[in-house]
Write a structure and sequence with these properties.
The structure is a single chain. About 30% of the residues lie in helices and about 5% in strands. The chain has 10 helices and 6 strands, in the order E-H-H-H-H-H-E-H-E-H-E-E-H-H-H-E. Helix 1 crosses helix 4 and helix 2 packs across helix 3. About 25% of the residues are buried. Keywords: Hydrolase. This is Catalytic/ hydrolase. It comes from Citrus sinensis (Sweet orange).
Length: about 270
């Protein structure tokens, strides 16, 4: 796969793009917003999908573990619901005032002489509101969100056209049974949702944003395949000082006009 470089200034450098997650990355876990997200997800499962209350917390964790997001997991095991309704319920009721402007991060981002892109599993409205609260609207080239990667029909993710009839759930898959019998001949159903951390999602993002993955940098937990692990995004200059050396001593800050571009196109 070939990647065109829109920024010739950094074409020969080690990195030419930073791909940022949004939640618990651009703002800290200690803000408390993630707890509110989890609470709203569990309430949605209880109130909208009528899942037994005692099973909701564990199911929520299992789906996140296997599918990257609870939404993707719910769709995989057979629940049908409007994804716009899910996002509205989960994010539309969040107390965004918990997030405060972050001038330190803003200055760090604007001083970086390379491209910066947000890649989130959340919806575009949530991403825009988070960046607005933090005062970072003009710090990123674009936002790649749930809507960017998922073809929708009035908010409902369409059935995966590549899945055979046998792969499309006709009844709810018992993920508790799957977890309790790890050695049994059970196979997790596929999800029609495209999302992190799966390779397909990143491949689409690289195409959409014209990113060369070999020149792209990211969690506070070091894992296999991770080059750097930061406790806070504020530590990025200490961990990766070479990013500020990309364009040399005479480099200028890079900012983006007014509102950030929010991608809504879909690559099938």
């Amino acid at each position: 796969m070939e990647y065109k470089n829109e920024n010739k200034q950094v074409s020969n450098q080690k990195y030419d793009c930073l791909l940022f997650d949004l939640d618990d990355t651009i703002y800290p876990l200690t803000s408390g917003l993630s707890k509110e997200v989890t609470k709203n997800i569990q309430e949605y499962m209880l109130q909208k999908l009528c899942i037994e209350e005692a099973k909701v917390p564990e199911l929520c964790v299992s789906l996140y573990k296997f599918y990257g997001t609870t939404l993707a997991g719910l769709r995989a095991i057979g629940y049908q619901f409007d994804c716009d309704d899910f996002h509205s319920y989960v994010h539309g009721r969040l107390p965004y005032m918990m997030l405060k402007p972050d001038p330190v991060l803003r200055n760090l981002l604007l001083s970086l002489p390379i491209r910066k892109v947000i890649f989130t599993n959340a919806d575009k409205t949530h991403a825009a509101r988070v960046l607005s609260r933090l005062g970072l609207e003009d710090c990123f080239e674009r936002i790649i969100s749930f809507e960017t990667l998922n073809s929708t029909d009035k908010g409902t993710v369409l059935v995966d056209q590549d899945a055979s009839e046998s792969e499309r759930p006709t009844e709810l898959f018992d993920i508790d049974d799957y977890c309790s019998r790890p050695n049994a001949d059970l196979e997790l159903p596929r999800t029609p949702v495209v999302c992190k951390p799966f390779e397909e999602a990143f491949e689409q993002v690289f195409k959409i944003a014209n990113i060369n993955p070999r020149k792209t940098v990211g969690t506070s937990h070091r894992a296999e395949g991770v080059d750097y692990a930061l406790e806070s995004i504020h530590n990025i200059k200490e961990a990766l000082p070479e990013l500020w050396e990309v364009a040399g001593e005479n480099s200028e800050s890079i900012s983006y006009s007014g509102k950030v571009s929010i991608e809504t196109s879909v690559i099938a």
